[in-house]
Amino acid sequence: MSTSPSTPEIQLLCDLIRRPSITPDDAGCQQILVDRLTAVGFQCESLQFGDVTNLWARRGSESPLLCFAGHTDVVPPGDLSGWDSDPFEPVFKDGMLYGRGSADMKAGLASMVVAIEQFLADNNDHKGSLALLITSDEEGRARDGTLKVIEALSNRGESIDWCVIGEPSSENKLGDLVRVGRRGSLSGMLTVKGIQGHVAYPNLADNPIRRFAPVLAELHQIEWDQGNEYFPPTSFQVVDIRSGVGAPNVTPAELSARFNFRYSTEWNDESLKKRVHEVFDAHEIDYDLKWHLSGEPFLTQPGPLIDAVVSSVSEYAGRAPELSTGGGTSDGRFISPAGADVVELGPVSASIHKINEHVKVADVIQLTSMYRRIIELLL
Ligand SMILES: [Zn+2]
Question: Cβ distance 334 to 184 under 8 Å?
Fold first, then answer.
């Protein structure tokens, strides 16, 4: 174990890790940010929805508005015996900082705040406005977090022009990859109905497993699309199938299944649902299908934000980032539809949600420089 590097972003990151902010509990993290931001002229508003604490902090009233976004909540540590150290006590080892949330995404938060402080020290009269949108409900249901804050902002005519999300976007080295969009996520919850019966008398029963099998095969055979310039091909995955009454001589009355599409901009949720129903309706099958849309796909087109991010990363990482739309969903799905350009730039994601989550100390310091440069280029 080595002593802690005493840069402001590393100190701030340690303060945040010490607060066990497991979703949706913010555990006082946002108050730390409020204290720092108020001191440099931000108006801070705490927006409470249900058990979720959100923060909207803004400096300036003019446009354009550059917003940094992120979350203070973390996933649970899991089995504590698997951790080499207390997940909520920052520990330095071999140039790494260990702790739950270190990479996802308290490093991003610490770098944003310090980048803003550094920028304001030299540019007190910047043009436009700076803001932070922070939630404590990104890792959970995400119902009372960023989505609700964006609604509240829209209702009073406040809109974000550019948004940088500090999620861990990098793959192997800081800045090797930034996200400029995300695939859509659409889930189906299926029930197939049949008639329960004796396995020896199939003519007197209607086996829902038999009914569903050819539909499932067909759904797997469809090439949904080949992706496009920005998106990988749409993927269909079944995550759960259950049926059966637990006896070897009874065929069941019902089958339930859950599946998910991660889809490109070649589809929207309506066109995708329609196509799935066509497949079902072409078979003789009595079914009920409920849908849940987690987010439509979004894509940020080339423009000032992407230019600023690419040139900042190139300057400090010595290489241009890959512009990607892979990975899971993020709160970008709520920010982008309101008309903002959204880019995600943050530390290496390799250890997120795992035991012994960690972040490279040097990366956190370099990330601050990248964020500061992005602000300088845009405001
Ligand atoms: Zn995250």
Answer: no
What does the DSSP 8-state code read for residue 355? T
Closest CA to 71 of 15, 145, 148, 13: 145
What is the whole-number distance in angstroms between the Cα of residue 54 and the centre of ligand 1? Answer: 15
In DSSP terms, 185 is beta-bridged to 262, 295
Minimal CA–CA distance to 97: which of 345, 330, 348, 316? Answer: 348
Q: How many CB atoms lie within 10 A of CB 217?
A: 9
Q: What share of the chain is helix, strand, coil (3-state, %, to 5)?
A: 35, 30, 40
Active site residue 73: yes
138 catalytic, yes or no? yes
Distance CA 144, CA 163 (A): 19
Strand 91-93 vs strand 322-324: parallel, antiparallel, or unpaired?
A: unpaired
What is the pLDDT at residue 3? 58
The pLDDT tens digits of the residues spanning 112-149 come to: 999 999 999 999 999 999 999 999 999 888 889 999 99
Phi, psi of 11 (to 5 degrees): -65, -45
Q: H or E element: which one contains 290?
A: strand 286-295
pTM of the model: 0.87
| Cα 62 to Cα 46, 131, 196, 372, 373, distances in angstroms | 21, 11, 66, 20, 20
Q: For residue 328, give the nearest of 241, 244, 262, 250 by alpha carbon.
A: 262
Ion ligand 1: residues, CB within 5 A, are 104-105, 167
**CA distances in angstroms from 352 to 122, 366, 374, listed in the order given:** 34, 19, 25
The residue count for the chain: 379
**CA 139 – ligand 1 centroid, Å:** 7
